[in-house]
Structure formats: structure tokens, C-alpha cells
Amino acid sequence: MESEFYDINDRNQDYQEINLLVGRMIHGLKAMAMIYHDYSDDINSFERIHELKDNLAYRLKSAQHLYLLLLNEYELKERELTKILENDPRLFQVNWGGKNPVAGKIEEELAAIFDSLVYHLNTSFDYLAHITSYICLKKIKKTVYWSGLRNYAKAKGNEISTLWIKETIVRVNDDFVSKLDDYRSRLIHTKRDVHPLMAFKSNETKVTQLYLSASDTSKRFFKKSLANYDKDKGISLSFLASTLIRDTLDKIELMLDALVYEINVASNFPNNWDESKKGLMLIRRDPKTKKGKLVSDIEWDKFKHKTD
Q: Which domain of life is it from (predicted)?
């Protein structure tokens, strides 16, 4: 069975990896916000940029928590199946015409958590668009969602279209966000997605591992995210959830790289020492160069693994 599916075989280990990755990304968001405050000529930078990055951080932490709930729910369902097999094994011996009531209940409850996870990941990119438009739109100050940011990047004659970051926006959109948004929209406006209970592993006393297959529809929508895996093997719903979180974090990092580049290009840093305009700016002595360095740059280097 294990050779037929990509699955999360060590759930605790995978969750701990996701926990570290989300924590690292929140650190990166904080560093980017600090850089914007230090380098930009925006006198409201400290309050506004940190509010925006906190909104995005909340969505990422929410997605992480939903993944934990999904993994915990798997274990709960395995215990429930163990009791069913002990008390009435006929429930899985009778031909229910493909509509076994136990399997249906399991699928619905796990799918509900997965759908919520998708919503949070998708909304993360709207919050990322808020950050990007706040930093990059100088002539027109308005809240822009991801779809609007994408349209700016693909059009001509606007502020975004003249910036280097437009290439990153288009790439992130076409490689991932477009399909994530389409899938979320389908769930909300068209129909729910069904992820069939394919099988479960059991020993003499209990169900040890539940296999809920990600639907063919979800695999089609996220084929780019799954491109490195054997398409002839099944994908469990938990494996897909983990993959989407990781891909979301990868794409957000690409955007942060581009944002920091744009912040540096438009830097007003030498003029920002006037504390009456920008407030407190922190400098730390670099142990290697023995020179002062902005804490924002030090924290960004840590995020990019350039320093310990």
C-alpha cells in the first residue's frame, strides 16, 4: 500500500518541519518590514507596514494550525475505525454501492478542514498583495488584492509594470496562485471536492494508517506543485496539504526577495537619520567587520541563511 501512495508517514515530524518553515517566514516578514521602515521615506512606515505583515503572519499561522487539526483528525478517525472493526466489521464487508456511510463521514470531516486550509493559503496572497501595493504604489494609495496586483503586473502604463517585481508577480501567479485561487473559487461557487477513502492499514488490534486520496480534480489543479512526484502514484490528502503549505511559503519568499530589492532601489536611507521623521532605528556592531550595521539588514541576512 505504501508504494502506491505519497503519504505523510511521520505526521509529527512533518508538522514540526511546517512549524519551522512558517516560523522562518514570519521572521522574514518582520525583517522585510524593518527594512522598509529603515530605508523608505514613508513617515507612517512603522505602524502601517507592521500591521500589514501581522495580517499575513496570522494567515500563515492559521494555515499551520489547520494542518495540525487535519493530522490530529486523521488519528481520531483511525481510532474510530478501530472501534468499528472491533464492534461491527460488516460495515466494511457490505457492498454499499460506493457510498459507505462510515467512509462518507470520514471524508466529509477531513475535507472540511482541508478546504479551510485552502481558504487561508489563498487569502495569504491577498494580504501579500496589500503589502506589495503599499510599498510599490506611490501615486495611487489603495488596497489591492492579488487579482488586481496580477493585472497591474501584466498590463502596461502603471507603477507596478515599470518595476522589476512585476516579473516575480507574474511568475508566482502563473506557477501557483492562479490555480490556488481557481480551486478555492470552485469550492465556494461551484461544488465541493470529494477525496475518497481508498484504504486503511490495520494490524490485529487497530487501524494504524488511513489513506484518504486527494481528488483527481485537486491533483489536476495543483499539477505544478506535484510535478516532481510520480503521477502514477496516489497522493494522500494530508500529503497534498503539506505540499500546498510548502509551495505557498516558497512563493511568498520569492515575493519578499523582490520587495526588498525594490525597497533598496528606492532607498532614502541616508536621509532617515532624522529621528523626528522616522523614529527609532537600530544598529548593531557586526562581529566580523567590527562596523555598525542596521539590525534590519542583520535580520534579513539571518532569514536568508547568510549569518547565524
A: Bacteria
pTM: 0.91
Q: 72-81, 218-227, 246-255: lowest mean pLDDT where?
A: 72-81
- The neighbour count for residue 221, using CB atoms within 10 Å, is 20
Scanning the structure block, which residue is given the C-alpha cell 495569504?
124
Q: Is residue 236 within 8 Å of residue 7, measured between CB atoms? A: yes
CB atoms within 10 A of CB 49: 22
Burial 1-23 (b: 16+ CB within 10 A, else e): eeeebbbbeebeebbeebeebbe
For the chain, the domains span 8-275
- What is d(CA 302, CA 308) in angstroms, rounded to the nearest whole number? 6
Task: Give me 68's grid cell.
Answer: 495540525
Chain segment 106-116, per-residue pLDDT in tens: 899 999 999 99
Distance, in Å, from the CA atom of 30 to the CA atom of 297, rounded to the nearest integer, reads 11
Cα of 27 vs its chain's centroid, Å: 15
The 10s digit of each residue's pLDDT in 10-30 is: 999 999 999 999 999 999 999
- Contact yes or no for 103/132 (Cβ under 8 A): no
